[in-house]
Amino acid sequence: MTFRPKPLSLSLFTILFVMLFLILLFTLGNLTYREFEHLDTKFRIANAHSAAAEIESALSEAISQSKEKTRQLAAWEEVGQQLNNPTFYSYWYQYRAKNIEYVSAYTLDIAIYDLHGNVLAPMDTSILPQKIDTAGIGHYIQVNDFEPLIVVIIPVKESISGKKLGYLATLSNLFPILKGFSHFNYIDRSSISVTIDKIDMISSQSLLENIDYRLTSDPYAQAIKPVVKQSLLQLAGTALILTLLIFPLAAWLVNRPILQISQQIDQLQSSPRTAVKQQAVRPLFIKELDKIQTSLYAYHNRLNQANSYLDQKTQELDDIVQHDPLTGVMNRRAFDSYWREVTDVFKHSADEICLILFDINHFKALNDTYGHHTGDEVLIAVAQTLKQILHSRDQLFRLSGDEFATILMGIPSRKAMQIAKQCHLAVINYPFDKLGINEPVRISIGVADIKAEKGENINALHWQADIAIHFAKRPGYSSIIRFKPELAENARGLFSNRTHIAVYEAVTRGTGLVMHYQPIVDLENGKPQYYEALVRIVHDGQLIMPSHIFPLVEARSLDLDLDFHVIEKAISDLREGRIPVNTGVSLNISAPAIVEHELLQQLAAFKPFMADYKLLIEITETALITQLQTARKNLEILRNMGFSIALDDFGSGYSSLRYLGAMPVDVVKFDITLTRLVDDRADNLILNHLAKMISESGHLLVAEGIESAQIAEQLAKLGFRYGQGYYFGRPARAIGKTGSSKDSINYSA
Predict the structure, then answer these.
(1) Are 416 and 408 in contact (CB under 8 A)?
(2) pLDDT tens figures, 704-748
(3) What is the rounded distance in angstroms from the CA atom of residue 143 to the CA atom of residue 201?
(4) Cα–Cα distance between 652 and 659 in angstroms, integer?
(5) DSSP run (H or E) holding 471
(6) Residue 436, phi-psi category: left (phi > 0), alpha (psi -120 to 50), beta (remainder)
(7) pLDDT at 321
């Protein structure tokens, strides 16, 4: 074992260094600081108090002087004469009033008022008011253009009897009086000013608070500055000497080890996966730094081990997420990820790319006939058979229940067709009879290829392969079809490239997807009770209808994506108030979505609206066939959350009446094929008994496809509570408006 010397404590080095430096620095600096701070603070406080008292005294004296001058003027005999006989007041005001000795040079105006406060005669040159408030006798201050003026109002009395004859008012400039005093010791009188521009009336105390001035220079402060300067220079010189002496030592003892650790960290960052042998690391003299170094390498080694373990588990988890748990092949998530990589490669490569789709013929019938377990065995057998034919580099993906796909890169179309034929032949020759299946199991294959050098769009491969497999499953066609342009001409109504792209963008990203709402009304009064949310896609100013949306959604297994975007759009419409309060909205949920736990999390966003709206989940009959227990469990949870459950298109699917007893259903919507039976007398009897039986079981009945008042009246008599159809309103974006072919957005694909 390698001997490692015991390092010294960093605290010991730090304490010795800090104590030596602080004792010397504090001894010199403290004396200087205390002397300067004490004297400066004392002088500044004393001068400030003295200046405040000085300006207050001067202001008080100036006001008193103005009052005294006004009292002397009020005692002037001529003032009383003017009150007794104001005939010559104008002459007296112009030639006598401002020339008497009682009037100071700072008096701006004089006015005499009678007992009612009215001036004896209005003068154009007077700046005093023509009327005064006799209740407010005394003085007040006003400010005009930053100049304080004092108005003094004194009663005028008869000299002998003391009888009040009237009032005398003077207006004087206050600052010249104040600045005329010679006893300012702490204030520079030339700096005295008022911070207020203009005010009609202000008290002397308020004026004092708004007077600004500058203190005269303090000889004591001037004398102390050289002392402070000398002390600071001494302190700076001492600190410099100490720094030059001590800092190199501290840098050698502390900074060098820290720099060493920093360099070691850089090495670890450049080689994060390299383990470190701590015995080969050079020890440090400082105990704490050496501990940091040792702990760093120990932590690095443990982290390296944890990362290796995490990488292993991440790879295992990625394999689980990317693989279909039933068949073991790659799943739809892996296909989407791989497709994005293929798209990037296609931009920079001239290789040919081929997409092959595989679909098991009549798989649903096999599943229903032999059960889900046998159906699962068929899927596993087909997947393993296809995987054996494909090269190891060509992945097989399970896109949906019975649909598989593979992407071939750099393989000519002729070779791709040979691989497709080999796959088809291998499935035909597989011994499915071992699974207890008596009839042959066949697959349909659609092939689509593309070359970058032709300038073609790789996104077209999806709909081209869809078209190919669409014809491969039709009678009279080969089970293996390679896409040709003439096939697209024959399937234009269903698989147009523009429609495909628009639907794919809307379903996967929500682009252009909007909700239209059709009312479900009470058949007794015709008032809307709630509105069914119906999917529409706006693309290039046109409206893509469900007949063009759902075939592509089902072909690409995008049901779950569509349902989640529909939920988001419906919540957005509720927030915007598109749906009237105290009505409601119903959402159609697909079979793949109703068994997903994530759906419950998405629908939980409706909780804030449940107090004001009736919320329904509509599910078709066929949605209840597969994964029955999971569907029932999720519907029960939604019921407890406050949703009502409606069985949609009753009478059009594969289900029987037993679903009404087995599933938590509140509302039964009769398909239009059943409601039209009301016109036939014999069929009407069947419809009557069927509606009565379901109604008596506690379910609300809704009739679809009502197009006339007569049909609505007949259905109401049969026990139908609600109705839906063009008679009550077509689906429209704005509730209350009926959509038509004349709208700005056409009903076309």
Answers:
(1) yes
(2) 888 888 888 888 888 888 999 988 988 988 887 544 433 333 332
(3) 8
(4) 14
(5) helix 460-472
(6) left
(7) 76
Strand stretches in 7-146, DSSP E: 107-113, 138-144
Which range of 231-240, 318-327, 379-388, 488-497 scores highest in mean pLDDT? It is 379-388
519-568 per-position pLDDT tens digit: 999 988 889 999 999 988 887 777 777 767 777 777 667 788 888 889 99
**CA dist 111 → 64, 92, 170, 350 (Å):** 19, 11, 7, 106
The DSSP bridge partners found for residue 397 are 330, 405
The answer to whether 636 touches 615, Cβ cutoff 8 Å, is no
Q: Are strands 443-451 and 480-482 parallel, antiparallel or unpaired?
A: parallel
CB 479 within 8 A of CB 443: yes
If you search the block for the tokens 């010199």, which residue do you land on?
28
Place of tokens 């004087």: 172
Distance CA 744, CA 737 (A): 13
Q: Provide Rg for the chain, Cα atoms.
A: 50
Pairing of strands 584-589, 528-539: parallel
Q: Which amino acid is it at 306?
A: A
CA-CA distances (angstroms) from residue 96 to 73, 102, 109?
A: 12, 11, 12
> CA 544 to CA 563: how far, in whole Å?
17
Q: Is the dihedral of CA 732, 733, 734, 735 positive or negative?
A: positive
- Sign for the pseudo-dihedral over CA of 657, 663, 668, 670: negative
pLDDT tens digits along 166-204: 998 888 888 887 777 657 777 877 778 888 888 888 888
Pairing of strands 667-670, 138-144: unpaired
Given a cut of 70, whether residue 80 has pLDDT beyond it is yes
> Which of 338, 349, 351, 329 shows the shortest CA–CA distance to 407?
338
H or E element that contains 746: strand 746-747
pTM of the model: 0.43
Largest distance between two CA atoms of the chain = 146
Q: Extract the tokens encoding 648.
A: 């949609």
**Rounded Cα distance, 11 and 8, in Å:** 9
Name the burial class of residue 670, with classes exposed (0-12), middle (13-18) and buried (19+) by CB atoms within 10 angstroms of its CB.
buried
Q: What are phi and psi of 63, to 5 degrees?
A: -65, -45
CB neighbours of 583 closer than 8 A, spacing ≥ 6? 528, 529, 530, 531, 613, 614
Cα–Cα nearest to 651, from 613, 607, 704, 573: 704
SS3 393: coil
- E strand intervals along 35-161: 107-113, 138-144, 147-157
- Distance of alpha carbon 208 from the chain centroid: 54
Measure the CA–CA gap between 578 and 732, rounded to whole angstroms.
11
CA 361 distance to own-chain centroid: 48
C-alpha–C-alpha distance, residues 486 and 323, integer Å: 36
Torsion sign (Cα): 470, 474, 479, 482: negative
Instruction: Compute the residue count for the chain.
Output: 749
The two structure tokens encoding residue 181: 């005093």
- Residue 157 phi/psi, 5-degree rounding, is -120, 155
| DSSP collapsed to 3 states, 396-455 | EEECCCCEEEEEEECCCHHHHHHHHHHHHHHHHCCCHHHHCCCCCCCEEEEEEEEEHHHC
Question: CA nearest 151: which of 82, 63, 73?
Answer: 63
Judged by DSSP in three states, 115 sits in: coil
Say if strands 513-522 and 722-723 run parallel, antiparallel, or are unpaired.
antiparallel
Task: For residue 405, give the nearest of 334, 343, 474 by alpha carbon.
Answer: 334
CA 636/CA 469 separation, integer angstroms: 38
**Residue of 501, 498, 472 lying closest to 484 (CA atoms):** 472
Higher-scoring residue by pLDDT: 229, 589: 589
Question: For 473, which DSSP code?
Answer: T
Q: Bridge-partner residues for 535, per DSSP?
A: 515
Helix (H) / strand (E) element for 326: namely none
